[in-house]
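User: Show me a protein chain along with its predicted structure.
Assistant: Here is one chain, sequence first, then C-alpha cells.
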Amino acid sequence: MPNRTARTPAPAGLDDPPDIATMRSTAARILDFDAKPVSTEELETLRLAMRGQIELMIPTVEALAAGFPKGDIPRECALAGAREASMRLRLGVGGSRPVRMSVSMKLARSVMALCDHFENLGGR
C-alpha cells in the first residue's frame, strides 16, 4: 500500500467550526501578564469556559488528525496535545487562589495548543 501524503477531507460535523478567536481570547485573559488581575469569580468563569472549550476541541482535533497518516508529525503532535489536554481536565479546582490560578493557566495553555493544532491540521 503506498504512503498517503495528502490529508483526507475534514470529517463530517466540522461544518460549524469552533470559534478559535474567542477561545484564544479567553485563554489570553489568563496568560497575558499585562492584563489587569482577575477576580475570584471571573477566574472561575474563565476556568469553566476553558474546560468547555477543551472538551469541544479534543474530539475536533482528534477527528482532523485522523485524516493524516500515522507517523505524520503534525498528526502525532496534535494527538499528544489532545491527550495532555485530556489529562488537564482531571485537575481539581484547587483550594487556594494561587493553585486555582495555576490550574487555570494550565487549562489556558491547553486551549491555545489545541487551537494551534486545529489550525495546523487545516481546520478553519
